[in-house]
Amino acid sequence: MAGAAAGQTDRLQAAVDEFLVHLRFERGLSDATLKAYRGDLLDFAASRGAAAEWDASADIAVRYLAMLGSPGKGRRAALRPTSLRRRAACLRGFYRFCYTEGLIATDLAARFDLPRQPRLLPEVLTIAEVDGLLEARTDDTPAGIRDRALLELLYASGLRISEAVGLDRDDLSLEDALVRVVGKGDRERQVPVGEVAIGWLRRYMNEVRPAWLALASEPLPHGGPIFLSVRGDRLDRRRAWEMLVSTARSAGLQNGVSPHTLRHSFATHLLEGGADLRIVQELLGHANISTTQLYTHLTGERIRDVYARAHPRA
Predict the structure, then answer these.
(1) pLDDT tens digit string along 95-119?
(2) Burial of 8 by CB count in 10 Å (0-12 exposed, 13-18 middle, 19+ buried)?
(3) Which pTM value belongs to this model?
């Protein structure tokens, strides 16, 4: 019985660690935010019953949040509404991540009947800023060519960074300008890739990748990873994230540019160019159209901003 309890505790801790890695390297959250989320999740994990029940029911999380919001004898003071909303957002995000990654069988986040913070619109770059970011990667070394190919692919396709570095050679058709992606929930989709990105991918595949692929210590399935390190193994998302942050800094973009910023920019620029919302949903791999609809609000805000700056009587 003690072994089962320890196993549940380990599963919860592993899930927390995976979620924090996701927030760091997919979402690009700051160190301060990650520290706050880690503290929130560890506090929840240490609460009564959490380790045993966290993956079976939302009740334990709801009770935990209700306890935090209610003062009581012998307990800590009630959290302020803003702090309670942050805890709720943290736990909801954690449970949604666990469900989409297959760590739990049920979407427990959907069962949280809790006050929500207003959903913030994602940060996006202008087309000129994206151009500046991509052109900032002018290093003609093998690593520089690989990095430019990766950045071009991220913006051309809207892939998550984990999807991009997870691609194998068999997933890419240079001739058809398509990549096959297996995204969240094992949903498979085919995404077209623009000719500029294909040109950089072709250069990387011809000039750089063969020499690195030859360094692999054993035969690689599916043609091996597309994006390799200089040691011949798969490029990890930490290295990819660090490269993007460094490139953004070189381009003069200081405001928290992350791989998801390119994904958000991809979707927004498509919609501003007249793309159908359902097509953008399919390209992004969203299971629900409501997730994609967030970008329609974003483009509306951008249109109003342009109008306010450009019209003489705005």
Answers:
(1) 989 988 888 888 887 776 555 545 5
(2) middle
(3) 0.64
Q: Domain residues of the chain, as ranges?
A: 2-111, 127-308
Q: Determine the 3-state secondary structure of 217 from DSSP.
A: coil
Q: Measured between alpha carbons, how far is 10 from 15 in angstroms, rounded to an integer?
A: 9
What lies within 8 Å, CB to CB, of 254 at 6+ separation is 248
- Cα–Cα distances (Å) from 202 to 28, 121, 175, 210, in that order, read 29, 35, 10, 12
What span, in angstroms and rounded, lies between the C-alpha atoms of 110 and 119? 16
Top mean pLDDT of 99-113, 197-211, 273-287 is at: 197-211
Active site residue 295: yes
Q: Which among 22, 27, 92, 260 is annotated as catalytic? A: 260
Name the residue type at position 304. R
Residue 160 annotated as catalytic? yes
Selecting among 22, 27, 263, 269, the annotated active-site residue is: 263
| Residue 241 · residue 258 · CB < 8 Å | yes
b/e 161-172 (16+ beta carbons within 10 angstroms → b) = bbbbbbbbeebb
Instruction: Note the CATH architecture for domain 127-308.
Output: Orthogonal Bundle (1.10)
Does the annotation count 75 as an active-site position?
no
Q: Computed over its alpha carbons, how large is the radius of gyration of the chain?
A: 22
- Dig out the tokens for 107 from the structure: 């979407």
Q: Is 263 a catalytic residue?
A: yes
In this structure, whether the domain defined by 2-111 belongs to CATH 3.40.50.150 is answered with: no
